[in-house]
Design goal:
Blueprint (H helix, E strand, L loop, with lengths): L8 H12 L2 H13 L6 H26 L3 H8 L4 H31 L9 H9 L14 H18 L3 H11 L1 H14 L5 H9 L9 H14 L6 H7 L8 H33 L3 H5 L4 H12 L4 H34 L5 H16 L7 H44 L7 H27 L7 H24 L2 H4 L4
Helix pairs in contact: 1-8, 1-12, 1-13, 1-16, 2-11, 2-13, 3-4, 3-11, 3-12, 3-13, 3-18, 3-19, 4-5, 5-7, 5-16, 5-17, 5-18, 5-20, 6-15, 7-16, 7-17, 9-13, 9-16, 10-13, 12-16, 13-15, 16-17, 18-19, 18-20
């Protein structure tokens, strides 16, 4: 079976940007900026973009495009022992998409509730009591929350029809799903600047608190945000690049994807802080407290702000359509990474049938998050898989390319196909800077989690999180060391 191809370079860029730009661009980046020094946060953020984000994204684009395989096949072609690194990445991707789809299910429920703005009387109670029907703790499952389960069914059906024809269906979807949230953000921005108090929100967003730059936690947050927002360590970008022609430009596509993603994050910040500035004035609430509400920003604070605006139902609809369109691209990119690996192995495989299997597996794995303890379980799993698994994959990617395959060898390939020259700074970043920076981040997070149990969860619940880290890691390492070619050296 001939390898799938993108219809054009533009379609590839839309798909890559769609995968990178997700729910975190709307709530996580503005929240971090508000919490960690406003405009000063942009300093470590942009440094992390150039020193960590762009080199790693360039690596994944180059590996996928040169090797013309999904994550497992590409890493195996770099070194025969490292196919299991692709497995590590894909296991993490499967875990993430299983709960990411549930969050999209929440967005779908809010979209339907927007017509009556059902949360207007008490946004917090609506989210936790009406939507989540949350139990008293992680040890009380409380049974299935049926509205969320049925919403999850709808979400997975949508994901399936995005990927069921591979790059053909994905290409048709991203033409609309990537520009749509940008347009909707523009509409919301126009509304925000007509609201009293919006400028107070912008001041908090942009005014630099330079003293924040001496806090190591600020730098950790900035590097983590760049790492996660570019979909690094999932196997997605390797897969997407494998559908390009081997002679396509790599450097330009990397910079365009990274810069567009960051520009959308910055743009979303103006929307969020403008509306929060209005809400702070209406409710007499501290603006900084509203901005630092974390994940609750998307499902509690922002919906409450929308309910206070004129025509609340209309702008609520726009907001949750935006969240759904952001989420769908990220979700089906995770599925596509899994599909590609299976199709690489089954040379005559049927894309539609493989997609059904992956989507059904993702749905079944997500059922646990539709229980009344689902939010607690989701919180634990997300904390461990994003703070450990993805960073571990990136560290091993850097070692594989930098030290075993050869950073200079891959850099020469990139320069052969790219109009913009990639300098030797890239070699230094891949071989030294990225591994050291990510090991430092891992050590900091590990020390914190050992000293203080995450969110005070019981040991057995946190054990699930640690298992999600160590089981895939042990599988990868066991397959790595048991292959004799590792001892004998790399074979081409």
């Amino acid at each position: 079976m001939a390898r799938q191809r993108w219809a054009s370079r533009t379609v590839f860029l839309l798909a890559a940007v769609g995968s990178a730009v997700g729910l975190g661009n709307v709530w996580r980046f503005p929240y971090l900026a508000g919490k960690y020094g406003g405009g000063a946060f942009l300093v470590p953020y942009l440094i992390a973009l150039v020193l960590i984000g762009v080199p790693l994204l360039m690596l994944e684009f180059a590996v996928g495009q040169k090797m013309q395989r999904g994550a497992i096949g590409s890493f195996r072609k770099l070194h025969p022992n490292f196919g299991s690194l692709g497995l590590f990445a894909l296991m993490s991707a499967f875990i993430i998409v299983s709960y990411y789809a549930v969050v999209m299910g929440w967005s779908l429920i809010y979209f339907l509730a927007s017509f009556g703005v059902k949360w207007s009387s008490d946004a917090k109670s609506y989210f936790f009591d009406s939507v989540l029907q949350i139990s008293d703790g992680v040890n009380v499952l409380g049974g299935i929350n049926w509205p969320i389960l049925w919403s999850l069914v709808v979400v997975w059906v949508l994901i399936y029809f995005c990927v069921w024809k591979g790059t053909t269906s994905v290409g048709k979807v991203v033409v609309y799903s990537v520009p749509l949230p940008i347009i909707l953000l523009g509409v919301l921005l126009l509304r925000a600047v007509t609201l009293p108090g919006f400028f107070n929100g912008w001041k908090l967003y942009l005014t630099p608190v330079w003293s924040a730059l001496v806090d190591p936690e600020v730098w950790t947050a900035a590097f983590s945000q760049i790492f996660f927002t570019l979909s690094l360590g999932f196997g997605i970008m390797v897969t997407y690049a494998s559908y390009k022609n081997s002679e396509d430009d790599i450097a330009k596509d990397t910079w365009l994807t990274a810069l567009i993603n960051s520009a959308i994050s910055l743009f979303a910040g103006f929307v969020v802080f403008g509306i929060l500035g209005y809400m702070a004035g209406v409710t007499n609430s501290p603006l900084a407290e509203l901005a630092a509400s974390g994940p609750g920003l998307a499902f509690v604070v922002f919906p409450e702000a929308l309910s206070l605006m004129p025509l609340p139902w209309l702008f609520s609809l726009l907001f949750f359509v935006m969240l759904l369109s952001l989420g769908i691209d990220s979700a089906f990119s995770l599925v596509e990474a899994l599909n590609a690996t299976i199709l690489d192995k089954q040379q005559q495989g049927n894309v539609a049938k493989v997609s059904i299997g992956v989507c059904l597996g993702g749905f079944i794995a997500g059922i646990i998050y539709t229980t009344r303890a689902g939010l607690y379980i989701l919180d634990i799993v997300d904390h461990f898989v994003t703070n450990y698994n993805l960073m571990l994959v990136a560290i091993f990617q850097s070692i594989l390319v930098g030290w075993l395959y050869g950073a200079e060898k891959l850099r020469r390939y990139m320069n052969q196909v790219s109009d913009w020259t990639v300098g030797k700074w890239w070699n230094f970043s891949i071989k030294y800077l990225i591994p050291m920076a990510l090991v430092a981040l891992l050590a900091t997070q590990f020390s914190k989690d050992i000293r203080t149990p995450y969110e005070g969860y019981p040991a057995w619940a946190l054990g699930i999180g640690w298992a999600i880290v160590f089981l895939p890691l042990l599988i990868f390492l066991s397959l790595l060391v048991t292959d004799k070619t590792l001892i004998n050296g790399r074979t081409d």
